[in-house]
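Schema walk-through. Below, the input block comes first and the output block second. Nothing else is stored per chain. Lengths vary across the set, and this one has 76 residues.
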Amino acid sequence: MGIRPDLTGQGNGHRYAQAVIRYGFQHYGAKQLRVTIAAFNQRAQRVWASSGFEPVETFRSPEDGRVFVVMIGVVV
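--- output ---
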């Protein structure tokens, strides 16, 4: 999920995340979802954590060395 830069910082992240979660559940019957977030993006990590996601691993991109955080959430 990407958010247009002019729409960030307005307190809507949780609402956007919930829409993604609902879509995954309704359209795919997902029981668990995974998000991959750039490690520097603390704001996104807080949004997904507040939606019940937990970090499970980090990895470094082989292309440019950037670090990413993988978070898993269970759909209820």
